[in-house]
């Protein structure tokens, strides 16, 4: 399989592994779903790139350790679990699977 092909079952290529260094975020789309993949010291985590409070892109916000803050109203989310950590968000962000293969990072909306 070439790096530009998709895995079976709807896997979407996010980027080359060299383009997602520790502390960085890459965003891709799976259909209508924006998915951000973040590298936390070598651990890759994928979450829906939408704040559950106001449907704003989370990837625009700052990273703070294993958390991200929505720049719109300050809601914070755990990047490992998607859990909402403070108001005004109460619902978690959807979490998605991540794979590394052929030098690339892959994810999918598995709902």
TrEMBL record:
UniProt keyword Phosphoprotein, yes or no: no
InterPro entries, per the entry: Rieske_2Fe-2S, Rieske_2Fe-2S_sf
A Pfam family assignment: Rieske
Superkingdom of the organism of origin: Bacteria
Domain Rieske: 12-107
GO molecular function annotation: 2 iron, 2 sulfur cluster binding; metal ion binding
Keywords, comma-separated and alphabetical: 2Fe-2S, Iron, Iron-sulfur, Metal-binding
Protein's UniProt name: Rieske domain-containing protein
Species the sequence originates in: Arenimonas composti TR7-09 = DSM 18010
